[in-house]
Design brief:
The complex is a heterodimer of chains A (211) and B (182).
Chain A: H1 2-9, H2 19-43, H3 49-52, H4 56-79, H5 87-90, H6 94-110, H7 116-121, H8 128-148, H9 155-174, H10 183-208
Helix pairs in contact in A: 2-8, 2-9, 4-9, 4-10, 6-10, 8-9, 8-10, 9-10
Chain B: H1 5-16, H2 20-41, H3 46-62, H4 73-92, H5 112-124, H6 129-140, H7 145-152, H8 156-175
Helix pairs in contact in B: 1-2, 2-3, 3-4, 6-8, 7-8
The chains are: A mainly alpha (211), B mainly alpha (182).
């Protein structure tokens, strides 16, 4: 027993302050890279990539998930520490949600009624949330790996937060394939896919993150 | 008795910078303190105390990068110990006072009673051992002042004064939170 302190302190490596955020970003980044490669290889990039880059919706579909992923990752950085609370970091969550909701509402109200159904369901509403969820799995795996080296004590909350970060990363990857152009579509189906990823994290957190 | 927060914190910061000797002293100190921590909470399970101390010490070591250098060290170390203790209760299926699952999305895993107990123990740890024993006798075991005085071989007045001063100090401990750092 008294050996333990000696063993653990032998060949002690210094731990830089950046150790935790770097490990978290490594997990998220590696998972996101895998996700983007898989989306481009299996589903393919959207055929109208060139002209689409000049539209606001192309960027909105990237920035909205990315902002949610960033807020969730910041919260995860907090929850990676024992007995910590992420409430102060999650208060930013409503900002992108509200912005996209307002954007969708404006687009919807100013469109002719004949366009409404097309705006809400596009041509891929049935698939979109599932593909977002599938694209969220590699980042979720990366984040679970990172988190298992940390010391979270609120496993459900931590699972939710890394699920949301993975959902945001997955939606970001999927947006390179998706050629939907409606803001209401983004507000509904992307959000649903990301929420599903967050829910998956919430469900599996206590089991996956146990230490 | 307990090594003050400031000393442990200094050792931890040195350890994070790669100072093996300081780090070893830290782990040895924690090992002794954690033994007491778990023994008090696992009455009768003496064989399991060593396992938990060892598990906690290893977790503290492998997860030392999760210590936030702007926060108190003992709170971090004991949060890990408490997590290991709760996990131990869960594994054993003995859940008295400790919820099995968190009750909601943003609920804490840790029972508030454990938190409160930990805080009180930390406050009591700042008192001289004799005073601490007296407070335990009178406030926890509910002895009368006279009984406690007899048990400790003191005068009843001395017991009253010591307990009064001790409780005042405990109150002051909670009044000056977050704890003073150098």
């Amino acid at each position: 027993m008294s050996d333990l302190a000696r063993k653990l302190s032998a060949d002690l490596a210094p731990v830089p302050r950046s150790w935790l955020p770097r490990r978290l970003l490594t997990g998220l980044g590696a998972g996101l890279a895998v996700s983007i490669v898989l989306v481009l290889a299996i589903l393919g990039p959207r055929p109208d990539m060139g002209p689409a880059m000049h539209s606001m919706m192309f960027w909105a579909k990237l920035i909205y998930p990315l902002s949610l992923a960033a807020i969730a990752a910041l919260a995860a950085e907090r929850l990676a520490r024992p007995a910590a609370s992420a409430a102060m970091r999650l208060i930013w969550l409503p900002v992108p949600l509200m912005l996209v909701a307002v954007l969708a509402l404006i687009a919807f109200l100013f469109a002719p009624p004949a366009m409404h159904e097309q705006m809400l369901v596009g041509h891929s509403a049935r698939l979109c949330p599932f593909l977002v969820l599938a694209a969220a799995l590699p980042p979720l795996a990366g984040l679970v790996w990172a988190m298992r080296g940390f010391a979270p004590t609120r496993l459900r909350e931590t699972g939710f937060v890394i699920g949301l970060a993975a959902g945001g990363a997955g939606a970001f990857a999927y947006a390179w394939h998706c050629n939907e152009t409606g803001a209401p579509f983004l507000a509904i189906w992307y959000s649903l896919g990301m929420a599903a990823a967050a829910f998956l994290g919430w469900l599996s957190g206590p089991r996956l993150l146990r230490w | 008795m307990q090594t003050p927060e400031a000393d442990l914190r200094t050792l931890m910061l040195a350890g994070l910078a790669g100072d093996g000797a300081a780090y070893r002293l830290l782990l040895e100190t924690l090992q002794a303190q954690l033994g007491g921590y778990f023994r008090r909470r696992l009455a009768g399970d003496v064989s399991e105390v060593d396992d938990l101390v060892q598990e906690t010490l290893i977790a503290i070591h492998t997860r030392r990068g999760t210590f936030d250098r702007s926060l108190p060290f003992t709170a971090w170390a004991y949060a890990i110990a408490r997590h290991k203790l709760i996990d131990h209760f869960r594994r054993r299926g003995r859940v008295a006072g400790v919820p099995v699952e968190d009750s909601g999305l943003f609920a804490s895993d840790d029972s508030h009673s454990v938190d409160a107990r930990l805080d009180i123990e930390r406050a009591l740890a700042t008192l001289p051992p004799a005073t601490r024993a007296l407070i335990a006798d009178i406030k926890l075991k509910e002895l009368t002042n006279a009984e406690a005085a007899e048990a400790r071989g003191m005068s009843e007045t001395a017991v009253k004064v010591a307990v009064h001063r001790g409780l005042k100090k405990v109150a002051a401990y909670f009044g000056v939170q977050p704890e003073k750092r150098p």
